[in-house]
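Page 47, continued from p. 46.
Same chain as before, 242 aa.
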Amino acid sequence: MQTAQSTQVKSFTLANNQISRWHRFNSQDEINQATVRHILQAADEAIDRYGSFLIVLAGGSTPKSVYQLLAKEHADWANWHVYHNDDRCLSVDHDERNSKMAREAWLNHVPIPADQIHDIPAELGNIAGAKAYAKTLEGVRTFDLVILGLGEDGHTASLFPHHAVDNSADAVAVFDSPKPPAHRVTISQARLNDTHGVIFLVTGAGKQHAVNDWLNGVAIPATLIAPACGIDVYCFGVEVSQ
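Result:
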């Protein structure tokens, strides 16, 4: 695999006591390659330690590019378990479903056992879908790696600004999303924090305002993800300063 270098800006302790390590890349290809390496290394370490690798996927264009690269890799796929951080309440075959994107870009091309790929059944509606996914997550150990994105409004997964945070279950219903569709299912803040690692993928100048707020201590939804291990923010196309 091509070697990609990043400039690690430094570590910050931000709102909600979130410990963040910011890595700046010089191109989209560099951030993609580095993310793939991080995922594969986390998988090897988890399988050595636990016999399995539990990864939570994000939607979006940057993750899609990463998934397309993963489809070409060789890994111990039989021991991977795949989850999604959120999904939209649309039909299974709708082009805006995160699960459909991940399957077409990656999961359909590698031999991960079908019963180890856990799509959110958001097509059932946000309430029924959340209840079903909470049951799927029941008894699942700490995640090994959570992949997240950042919206221009500072949201991550389907945790939106000015929305009450629901930690009543591992997966919860989302109503009145400011981005359509209004109904979604998301893994809760508390369950996303139950992880050994987090990568935020942040690309494009449109995210600059959210990044500025984040680094200036504004409690945007992305700061709700504050596991004890800290988070790694991989960024390209935004300025990182404090």
